[in-house]
């Protein structure tokens, strides 16, 4: 095993908790070329970041990300902050020669994303966006089936990511509902996952017809003091044309009661179909045409032969949400060791942002827009 | 029970078989104001229509629909032919004072549909389009829940009608793949059902962004003799804006391997959600928000309290596809007796055609189009 | 087509309705050697049987089954009465030379069943028990898979038939809860179906360990007047050993809230598994071992290649409960024409009764009992 | 937070890996009265245990469990070895005053289990059996519903634990197939889980009728050298009578192709039903009778209000198999801190063993046996 890699993580909320867990777990389950060391976690509130460091297992805490990314002893910077700070941190880290892992969406707008990608490439560092769902074993299995041609040429992609946590009009205007912080609403937060999976599984998107809608234009401010505007989308839909001739649709909404984390896709090819639902993330539904007794079969993706699974438990012993981050780190760490940016790299982040941008433009222009 | 109603059916293929079954069955299960008499079936080929009359249970057969719809002893004309002949038959029947039931889509284009509606209204006859899926008990139950406000204000409609019977590029160019006969492809054949359900369950559609695609542009001609062009859509997608503020999407495709008759919708309201799949047409999935132990429940729509069900079997004894036609006839026959056109009337057929027309226009203009 | 077969049906309640529907429907969908004529329906109450004859489509009605089964013009007697009258009617019909179709269970006890079988054999008439679920297309498909060895040697059978219609302790003591009328409770009414399927799909049962339980020992009498004893089982369970070495279990209960007509089985063989649920009777779940991407697949048993289906609708257009009776009549009528008793014949009815009898004996003796 | 608890784990194979993971994870997600320290892991092979210590995160390794359990600095002994060594280790640990957590089944026979329980009680130490599935959040939710009377009085329990890993007759005779090592086959390994859940959710079992079967009596020896006898059961079934009047069944089999870790139960009460399947362990199916629109609902048991869940992720972000061990440790550690043995304690282990023993006796005597 090579020299340890010292990791700094910026941000420690929901995503920071998920990443920390993955940093802790990955060396116990996977062979890694260089073992990660959870060196320092960084946040603005000293009290809170100190508590988080202890709870999450980081050796140190810090309050200045600028100082952290400049430290000589840090090899990797893991960015878990809201999207409005991604650019500044990532560019500084890249310029300081650090490998960079960045939460999705890469940035809050396309220009920022391009800037980040260019900076990382210019600095020659390894970079990756954390679209963790690519590494759910069932999604990785879907990818293998498709790339091996087992469902033929792709005709249809149907991506739907539904949640219901802001259905109540009295749910407060949290940061994810502010354009200045989050960039967009359901579009960047969840539809971006469906778009990443579309690109991963089907190919590049050529053009889109988009629709953004905000159902609840005002919400109570956090901390009281009246109501404030919601200036992001509550729901985002788009029709898609792929470069390879496939067509499709993508939707993200936080207004689907009963759908908690329903990241679903169905793909139809010329010889078969594949469907996935994150709420049942250990299962993949596969249909291949083989006479009248064909049918969608539910593969329990927990066999040692399945992607990433042999590190874990016997067949039928399911994995959870958090494992997708562990798998992301495995590939990121191997990329760092070999000097190769794994997909989805910042280039993928830029591509994803181009699609988001085209959907926003199309929603405004009310016509198809090229990506 | 009132005087019998003498019925003439024009056409005797798939739809004619389904309608004949319903005409035979309806008096045995439902109380009807006037009992139908299966008087005459009409088709162009004397040999074939004679055989069909015997097999399907019609008293007579005929080869001239013009003569049939003019007969004094006929009260009801049931049109089961391909769409290109609907207009002529329906208008003649209406002018002859017959009640008219017409298969969907009402016509192959909007102008024809309007002409049919105007003629039927001018003649003062009862008219109805056979969008039979409205009368699957589970769909009727969904309608009841929505109209009673039990899932609140509707935000999302997702209609998807998938089949796979022409995935094979060597499947022949049957009449449903010819624009001159069928008017359109998946759009008019199956997406029109999803649009009818959208209007039935959510409300009027204001504008659309449509996409039509033909994956296999040429197919073997029936009867041999080379290949001919497919000039209808293999798949049709559209984004929707409803007049009441809901948004949605609709899709019809015959290129979804493994989906045999997958007429599915999901509707999200401000207080709950409802989902349906025709392949499991006795079930309705309902979610209502009621604390953390809420969940989508699967209602087996086979209780005597459910729409149409008390005429049939005990709870848990499921109905089939064909029952939706029986239920349609129940309401049609009650409408005939009372002189009231039941929904979906020809007016609904026109509305449906307006949506189909807007999708075609939008697919060509590449921008949103008003309905 | 041969000479018509004149049918007499005894009884006109639930089963009589289901059988009448099948008699009406069968000639419209299937090629039959001799067409059935619905000649006469028989019941004790003249007013009610007269009404039923009109509603159900019988030419005549009668009130004396003795006279009906003796009529020279009657070819087939279809027995739809409660179990306590099966023996007398069936033996009289057989002796009069009629083909006999009898509802299940064949009799209320083993001795009666044997007597019926002997009488029918002595008379040389065609006989059949109406275990209609054998002829759900999915069950027939399961049978084909098993008999072709496609899931290997059978190891396990798990049959579970659950309903919930008497969960309420104030539900009245209907005839099905009286031993004198019904013979037994869940055992003969529903577990007998699971046992028939076990024999049909796996093979003969050698010995059983049974458990009968009555949860609600008294219920309100119908028509008021206090409460009366329930002397049949509310639930029946048994462990099974088959002659071929398979083991299994069977259960019938009317005390399973939410299970309306949940007639389910799962069969595990040395190479695969099959599962079925009557509430989704158009589906069959099949597993065959074929590497790590294997999984249970859901076959929508609606293809023209599937048993009985080509007579009906295109793929994905589902059938209902009532179709199982139509299919039973198809095979019964072909048997009558050829002079061969189709399975399940009265011999199967006797075998079934032997298993029921062994379960009752075992429940009393508290030890395994041979069948 | 109190003084740390030093933990020694004996055994490091599959169960040792699962326990180690839980020991590592528990302090990062749960508030604990005394933090555990992963002090020492013990195994017979020095090379292998040394490697395991590093990989699994233990500070030290050792090869003599006798020395380990006697160490003054050890507070807790966690037993992850095969069943034949449980007794000796547990009794020694208890006598040394250690809190003891022991994998299930508690022992390979009833006498040993009783001895272990008596020794632990005599020593006054905290003891617990690791029936981890009790602490799947969905199972804990089922328990809450039942204990609050929300599905009424329990009538039926149906427990089925199916796997398929030894279907191939050439799968070798591993230690789990040797009576001397494992005590029994499917009975103690997996049916014991179903029995534990029966006791947890329904109540004490009064008597059983059991059936044990070995389909493949000889298998290849591990390491080559011919075949050896399989002297444990391949499948175990039993009918159950509970003390509270409920009836039920339990089954464990390793011969169910396609069932990987299918630990399923369904419970029917007088007012509702509950069903669970470990392969979808984040879901609980609940039915409560509430009129004709009732139906089984699928609760995604991932809400912060659900048992153990608030420590983890937002709604819809599912947990995996391994989390059940973390939850077990939470309650074990709280029990150690408070001096109270949490359920399932060794007393529960004894009760469980009594049921296993009765099933074995019944299988031999071929009659019902009291527990």
Report on this structure.
The structure is a homotetramer of 371-residue chains. The first copy, chain A, is an alpha/beta fold. The first copy, chain A, has 2 domains: 5-133, 3-Layer(aba) Sandwich (Rossmann fold), CATH 3.40.50; 135-370, Dihydrodipicolinate Reductase, domain 2. The first copy, chain A, has 10 helices and 17 strands. Chain A has helices at residues 14-29, 46-56, 65-70, 86-95, 110-123, 137-147, 179-182, 186-201, 323-338, 346-365, and strands spanning 5-10, 36-42, 60-62, 76-79, 99-103, 127-130, 154-162, 205-213, 218-220, 227-229, 235-242, 247-253, 262-269, 272-277, 283-288, 296-300, 369-370. A 9-stranded mixed sheet of chain A has the order 16-15-14-13-7-12-11-8-17. In chain A, strand 2 (36-42), helix 2 (46-56) and strand 3 (60-62) form a beta-alpha-beta unit. Chain A is globular. The relative contact order of chain A is 0.17. The model of chain A has no long low-confidence stretch (mean pLDDT 97). The interface between A and B is large, with 43 and 43 residues.
Percent helix range of chain A: 25-40%
Oligomer: homotetramer
Shape of chain A: globular
* The first-level CATH class name of the largest domain in chain A: Alpha Beta
Order of helices and strands of chain A: EHEHEHEHEHEHEHHEEEEEEEEEHHE
If you consult CATH, what is the topology of the largest domain in chain A? Dihydrodipicolinate Reductase, domain 2
Mean pLDDT rating of chain A? 97
Query: Structural class given helices, strands, pairing of chain A?
Result: alpha/beta
Strand content of chain A: 25-35%
Question: What's the total count of β strands of chain A?
Answer: 17
Largest sheet of chain A: 9 strands, mixed
The span between the termini of chain A is 43 Å
User: What CATH architecture of the largest domain in chain A do you see?
Assistant: 2-Layer Sandwich
Going across the biggest sheet of chain A, name each strand in turn. 16-15-14-13-7-12-11-8-17
Q: Count every helix of chain A, treating DSSP H or I runs of 4 or more residues as helices.
A: 10
The most extensive contact between chains is: A-B, 43 and 43 residues
Q: Domain count of chain A, please report it.
A: 2
Poorly predicted regions of chain A are: none
